[in-house]
Amino acid sequence: MDALSLRGLTKRYGRIEALHGVDLTLPRGEIYGLVGLNGAGKTTTIECALGLQRFDGGQATILGLPPSEIHRSGGRITAALDAPALHPHLTVRQELEHGWILCGRGGRSPREIEPLLGLESLASRRTRELSLGNRRRLSVALALLGSPELAMLDEPFSGLDAAGVEELIALVRRLVREEGTTFLFSSHQLDLVERAATRLGIIHEGRMLREGSLVEVLDGGAERIRIDVGDAARALEVLRAKFPGLDAARSPDGALAVSAAGFKAAEMNAELVRAGIAVSALGIERPSLASAFRRVTGFEAE
Amino acid sequence: MSDSIMGFVRQLRGEWFLLLRSRAVWAACILSMALAAGRVALLRLQSEAGEVHRAAQGRAGAAPADPSGYAPFADGLSWGFLVAFLSLTVFSSLSIALDRERGTIRLPLVRGTSRTGLVLGKFAALVVAGFALLAAATGSAAAAAAVFYDFGPVVEDRYEIFSEATICREVLTALAAAAVTLPAAAALGLFVSALARSGAAAAAAGLLATVGFDVLEGALGRPAGWVFLSYAPSLLDDSLLKEASKLARGYSDAGFSAERLWLNFAVPLPEAAFLLGFTLWIFARRRM
Fold first, then answer.
1. CA-CA distance, A136 to A155, in Å (whole number)?
2. Where do the domains of chain A lie, and which CATH numbers do they carry?
3. Model's pTM, two decimal places?
4. A79 touching B, CB under 8 A?
5. A190 CA: distance to closest CA in chain B (Å)
């Protein structure tokens, strides 16, 4: 059973259709990065999945439950949504204790979560005195209290400094590895999502344009090998003859750009050397989420 | 225990945790205690001043304004309860609306509390807090009355008009008659809170409903008797506490009619249930 499954989810706000039949599959133990521009439908998708707002069509199950019955999960689902939601009159420790009461006082306690997100020194500070970054840390800490099986984090990196991002990614990986926790986070910070996620969904204008494993979404899984050679035309002939079906082309700067799917860079290098073609550089270029996002959405930053 | 009951219990504990750490709640508690005791002390001062005035006019030895501590006690309760009820109205009006505004309502909903459990948890915590405020005001008024007065029967010209037991019974009935309206006050606040878009709007609407009823009560006539607010301590107090205070001063015409007394005890709890039902219905349909 998948941790989260959305099928044909639609949501309208009056005349505006915010979600157009969104499909999303999140297997257990995965880290799902839901990426999209502001207003793409990320938060609406998460809120509909969590039963915080109703959807107009489609089906959703979260840990096997419909969103309207999420309370039957017994605290196994958690979320940190959008802007950090805190009680301004409480201290950091009190806020965590309150959160722990709400999740039944089992699993990870406030004192255990504080060092994991660098909150020990802030324990006696009132939440209204915290910076945005520290509010975000606290919000994530609240979500990770207890023993959640599925954590949905909406824009978790927003406002975090570099150390905070590293701590969060390390913590997420640790929880997946040690406790089998499943994560979904939405973000428009593509580089950070790419580093943390094992599965991706690209949502744009309320439509899920691409979904799958990290490899599948990033250019169909094909890494590209860049080969700098003196005689590119001959090198291309040699490679095509030796590796039938090879997807290779000359790039504008004269180098060879070869799809790595099914082929090994070392073998190509050996064949070129054997044919007497000098190889001055050979490198594997991993396609980035940013380039995949641009390609899928057609969005180009000005 | 079922998930729903567990969610309700967690929400109740969570609300109680927040209320105990709220300066506003403690301020309301201190204010209701101070006003309850303050009014008793003020009445004692007025009584002393009256005696001095009478002595100056050569009428020393006339009956004191308050022959027993029960009347000032009931008056003190009236002020203390007023603060407690207004505070409860504000707290309950803020309860859902402010949580929605801050986004703090989402965590319990996501972590296993149903919408019904959340509203009932808030309601139960508010009612407990309300009764705690009433208890604090009662204790404060009783202590002040014990310091400034002697408790006893109402005696005039050596004739006992009302025995101490009668007065005690009337004051306790009045106390119960005021207290029984408290769950309805909390439910009214929650109802307003579920409808409101912001905490400030909810608090203003809750207070306006309560104070507005005070103003309009006279114009409504007999139908006003079917609204629980008629029996809650208010700025223009028509509650049974006022009648108990009159009785403890020896007024023989004090007290509610049998019909009004019946309405006082029969109306508030069904209205609380009605308002709570509406609140649940609205809350189940709102975007969180």
1. 9
2. 4-217 (3.40.50.300), 223-286 (3.30.70.100)
3. 0.86
4. yes
5. 26
